[in-house]
Amino acid sequence: MDWLVNGFDTAQQWLFESMLQPLMFSLGFASQLESGYKAAGWVLVGVLQLVVIAAVIGPLQRWRPVETVTDHATVRTDILYTLIHRLGLFRLGLFLTIEPVMESLFGTMRVAGITTFQLDGIWPGITDLPWVSLLLYLVVFDFVDYWIHRGQHHFEWWWRLHSLHHAQRQLTMWSDNRTHLLDDVLRDIILVVVAQFIGVAPGQFIAIVAITQLSESFQHANLRVWFGRVGERLWISPRFHRLHHAIGIGHESAPPEPAGSAGPGQAKRRSVLGGHNFGVLLPWWDMLMGTANFEVRYDATGVRDQVEPGADGRLRDYGRGFWSQQWRGLLRLVGKA
């Protein structure tokens, strides 16, 4: 692991000193050089991810696609989302807006005597085993991510934002970051707070985010692949996650039977928010909570109201380009779209 860490540190130092540091001096941000160095790490991770996506996942999509991609315009929009997130532009926005507030909050908590702890310090010796420590934090964050995802599908107001992610009718390796920015901000705030409370190191946090993002790019790929009966229960595959995006399956659950009902089939009733396969990396939480669906099938993806008219007789429009999608997400949030 040492050679990997040292190699990354060397590349981060070069990127910072040759590009970001001169730019920050010229823009008058000399007092923020420490943050600039962190930003260099995020940019480097993003570039490495883009290389893997294009060089590895791309050929796999061409090898065994689920469907023929015909709407290339929506894919280009998804690529824009990916570049915004993976090259650090989204995190730059957080740094300029949310991070100062969070730092002030954590500082106030420390002054008040509210301290954090090192989760990997509970068991003696784990801190001397970097890979074990990283895996421990990875599992913890994945558990948190599972419940964040359940919340995105459970609360109507949150679903109005998150549904943009599900509105992509043709999933590709670029679809992971197709999300409403406000939805991303809410998720990142929760993860940062958890990271502060359990004491994950900054380098480990970057590694966890990188592993998660790269795996999610693979899960969203237009790829007819599953991992077999055993493998499907160890790590989330493109098939497992595609079912989460399937119309009428992944984002809906059957409502409870009304009191006195004679059973299903009495009347056709609309499904409610819920769904299956909420896991981000590990299917374990879905298995434990009864939300796993391991059927080997590759259904059409999207949201039901894109293909079935609503009460007004119209299909819902989620927007085509980046700005229209963001704007319509805000309108849905306030009940205007």
Q: What is the topology?
A:
Layout: H1 2-27, H2 33-63, H3 72-86, H4 89-97, H5 99-111, H6 130-154, H7 156-166, H8 181-198, H9 202-219, H10 228-231, H11 238-245, E1 252-253, E2 272-273, H12 284-289, H13 304-307, H14 322-333
Antiparallel strand pairs: 1-2
Helix pairs in contact: 1-2, 2-9, 6-7, 6-8, 6-9, 7-14
Task: Describe this entry's structure for a reader.
- By secondary structure, the chain is mostly helical.
- It has a two-stranded antiparallel ribbon with strand order 1-2.
- The protein is built from 14 helices and two strands.
- α2 (33-63) runs parallel beside α9.
- It has one domain.
- The model is unreliable at 264-269 (pLDDT under 50).
Cα separation of the termini:
50 Å
The number of domains is: 1
Q: Would you count the extended β strands for me?
A: 2
Please provide the ordered H/E string of secondary-structure elements. Answer: HHHHHHHHHHHEEHHH
Strand order in the largest sheet: 1-2
**What would you report as the Rg, rounded to the nearest angstrom?**
21 Å
Shape: globular
Low-confidence stretches: 264-269
Total helices: the number is 14
Beta fraction of the residues? Answer: under 5%
Structural class, from helix and strand content? mainly alpha
Largest sheet: 2 strands, antiparallel
Mean pLDDT over the full residue set: 90
Share of residues in helices:
55-70%
